[in-house]
Design goal:
- The structure is a single chain.
- The two termini are 18 Å apart.
- The protein is built from 15 helices and no strands.
- It has 345 residues and is mostly helical.
- The chain has a domain at 98-313: Orthogonal Bundle (MetI-like fold).
- The chain has helices spanning 2-40, 45-50, 56-65, 72-84, 98-133, 138-152, 155-169, 194-200, 204-241, 244-251, 256-264, 269-285, 288-293, 299-309, 312-340.
- Helices cover 75% and strands 0% of the residues.
Length: 345
Amino acid sequence: MAFSSDTMASRVTQRLLHRMVTVSITLFGLLALTFMIGRVMPIDPVLTVVGPDADSSTYEQVYQEMGLDQPLLVQFGIYLQDLAHGDLGNALLTGKPVLDDIIRVFPATLELATVAIIFGIVIGIPMGVYAATQKGRLTDHIIRVISLFGYSTPVFWVGMMGLLIFYAWLNWVGGSGRVGLAYEGLVEPVTGMILIDSIIARDWEVLASALNHVVLPAFILGLNSVSFIARMTRSFMLEQLSQEYILTARVKGLPERTVIWRHAFRNILVQLLTIVALAYGSLLEGAVLIETVFAWPGFGQYLTSSMMLGDMNAVMASVLLIGLMFVTLNLVTDMLYPIFDPRTR
């Protein structure tokens, strides 16, 4: 028995080491590629600092202070050395440390993406399951068309139409921003996510305003996830419904609801977990258009503005964060596999 425990511990250790090496190589590759692309972009970060009217001596001084006179490999090495000490540099956009900027803007995107993925799960999974049970029928075709529409329609256009219809015309939801102007700054930022912060502060008026403002952008952002999750759920369910154990369950006289949800659906949970993790990661990194339309002060806007200015400190830190997000989601997904499917233990 001791040998079995030692063997299991050895396998777990090897797996963790393998993951750490893979993660390190992946993040290093992301940083190296982003750094090299940033240095060949036709944007001069020095001009962003000194302005277009600066004289040549000032330009040259700032150029050297930023280390741009060094070879690319030397510049990258200096960046890695600073990164190892927790220094991500200062942002040209705000003049503050990049880490402080990311800590400030990321919770807004995390909040928006989390509400969006909840919409994706709550709506997309039942749609996919029902479409699979109605294969070839009118309902199945309607759900597939809706999924195609949600997946292919430009999100910024849907966002503008949503604001026009549900805010300007019907006044059902809040407009731009995270809360109404009257509630700005009333809740102390503890987590940076205003829904949670308002609950902590027990300020229900701010919570109501925040919910009123987040529901439309989150739903529109989640449309893509709804479509993706619905299509993949339908595909997974069709595969399971064609298996012999489903036929056996039906022959035994089990209720159709039991056959669908307790047998077929349980066998696609691991696959769905992977799909949801991928969708969530995409929402976290791809919310820039919705944030722009709804004036949502999040990570996407920060990254886009930094790219336009050629602010490589902010861009590199943002790319690193995106890489860490996907790596973390993959690790969490792997840890959850044994819970949903004991066979993976």
